[in-house]
Amino acid sequence: MRIRILVTGGTFDKEYDELSGRLFFRETHLPEMLRRGRCLLDVAAETVMMIDSLELDDAGRARIVARARDCEERSVVITHGTDTMVETARALAGARLEGKTLVLTGAMVPYAFGSSDGLFNLGSALSFAQVLPPGVYVAMNGQHFAWDCVRKNTASGCFEAV
Amino acid sequence: MRIRILVTGGTFDKEYDELSGRLFFRETHLPEMLRRGRCLLDVAAETVMMIDSLELDDAGRARIVARARDCEERSVVITHGTDTMVETARALAGARLEGKTLVLTGAMVPYAFGSSDGLFNLGSALSFAQVLPPGVYVAMNGQHFAWDCVRKNTASGCFEAV
Amino acid sequence: MRIRILVTGGTFDKEYDELSGRLFFRETHLPEMLRRGRCLLDVAAETVMMIDSLELDDAGRARIVARARDCEERSVVITHGTDTMVETARALAGARLEGKTLVLTGAMVPYAFGSSDGLFNLGSALSFAQVLPPGVYVAMNGQHFAWDCVRKNTASGCFEAV
Amino acid sequence: MRIRILVTGGTFDKEYDELSGRLFFRETHLPEMLRRGRCLLDVAAETVMMIDSLELDDAGRARIVARARDCEERSVVITHGTDTMVETARALAGARLEGKTLVLTGAMVPYAFGSSDGLFNLGSALSFAQVLPPGVYVAMNGQHFAWDCVRKNTASGCFEAV
Predict the structure, then answer these.
(1) Which chain A residues are Cβ-neighbours of B34 within 8 angstroms?
(2) Who's near B16: CB < 8 A, 6+ residues apart?
(3) Is the ipTM here above 0.85?
(4) Where residue C114 falls among pLDDT bands split at 50, 70, 90?
């Protein structure tokens, strides 16, 4: 079983630009993270976009949905900014991709910053993607949520059931 | 659903003793790892032992089995050295703990060493423990294996199906 | 010989706020850095301010100069944002603090981000402060510069002689 | 002014072998450390040996002395295991390399392990090497010691004046 990973950016992949003092995107850290996790899953990764999810619009969401629909894998992990992760989950659910297990994950702290939750979340999302039945899920904080039962608590930065 | 985590040591929890230049055990890093992963699962963790799994004997294995049997949680993650992880999985399977999902995991590099796979594996094991049916599993390299279908390839350091 | 360390903020001490996604100041990381360096110098550290050096005005500079003047130590290290480090060096030189060796240093990447140059620079600045003759210096990139012979190259992020 | 760096191994450069669970030497981390420190000094680095300093014998010491003598630079930093750093300092002093400033440094924790003091010590040693008068020194714990006034306290792991 091969797993498709769609990279879309988010805090997960942000870096610090030492000249401007601002956060920015360069390449995804996903390959390095898979190496560090000694991941031996059959994984096909692609970068769909590198964007702060607050800047993601309907057209961008449509591109993510299209890639999730068109890829041949039945298990798909999508790395995504946390701010609008639930909106993208809803868009994916609306596309009714029968037979596919779609798991969105991200990070509260960039992987590049040492104290990141990204590696934990990636291990979690890849695992859920292998064993959950078809559907659209958010995997954060060690938990998984069906797309229509979750929200990000913006005060705590945590995902919670609704 | 609460998850029991049984800590038994292994590379996962080794540290560097700067006076002797040797690796040793102090406290488990599990609580720090759960914080870093922003883990919000209901988790009950306990240290059963802190041991290199090459030094684990039948009596030690019996203690691990006893704790896995006696704890009230139906989902149990066991952190364990990789060298004899499969032997302990077999001992757990032999105990026929009906209705329990038992997931063993570990690390090839100590969590304290920066380049560790431990955080990835912990996220993975906690996720598998929530959704796999009752049984005894090894979760390493992003994969999960039934206890009787896995071995550690000592040349590569990876777990593989048999 | 005791060394005074005056903390003023700068990239050196910035952290990532995982709720806002922005950089901010909390406590200085200096004590942790000294522990990590196993530093056994007799050091008296104080936080004068926690500020991005682009926001440092004449009144703020006057406070730094006052503390450098009033402290009893003859060796002083000042952690400082790199953008206006040279301006503060000039203000310190203008105060003509006879008999004092004043060394400014900072970082291009926050200490908290793993890939930081901060620890290297701190080791360097503390060493220069012990052995350079009285004067005002900038210690960055492994080098030391007299206050009136240095500028920050904003294109490269490096300090260079003028 | 160019600085010669002689790499000899020591904890500074040890790595963790995830197959054997033991520490070993591969390549030196010095170039990565210089990059991380954004070091812009004119540095010529060479690996003389990669050895635990407890295994360093008279012939090995003679090789280090020979390289320190034969290199054309007047400032030399030597990375070295801490256990016999003082013995090598003595051998260097015995060679009476007139006009040369020789600074030995090392680390209590391998650079590769995240919590290392190596980067701090390297910044310190390179700085002392630029400004101390000719002689043989040990730079550890933020301090510098003349070769005949220092010992490693094996109980604390710290260097101290004698």
Answers:
(1) 142
(2) B22, B23, B110, B112, B113, D109, D110, D113
(3) yes
(4) confident
